[in-house]
Amino acid sequence: MAENVIITTTARAKLVQARAGAITLPTIVGMAFGNGGVDSSGDVVAPTDDQTELTSELLRKEIDSYTILTSETATVRYMCTLGTSDLEGESISEIGLYDSDGDLVCIKTFTAKGKDSDIEMTFTLDDVF
What we know:
Blueprint: E1 5-7, H1 9-20, E2 28-34, E3 57-62, E4 65-68, E5 75-82, E6 91-99, E7 104-114, E8 121-128
Antiparallel strand pairs: 1-7, 2-3, 2-6, 4-5, 5-8, 6-7
């Protein structure tokens, strides 16, 4: 697994329930963005699998698209674009995928990326099994 990326305990619980037939697995519908992925020195803080939210969530936005990677048997790449007016002036350092229940299922932290008002930024996050 990549560094600073986790699948949440909530997601794993839903997966085993779906495999047993107890629930239908909710689909991934969006990406959450936050600025809590680094400490006061700018060092990346690893997320924990028991997190139910980002450390400092700023925005949730529906995904633009997804791609099932054919070269890898169990990977889906999700993409979400922040428009010019989304989070202008913020430094984004954490993202997460959320499902149709609103639960975060995957969290990634990284060095802060400044978001200017005159650019769009597209984020990708691979869901790997």
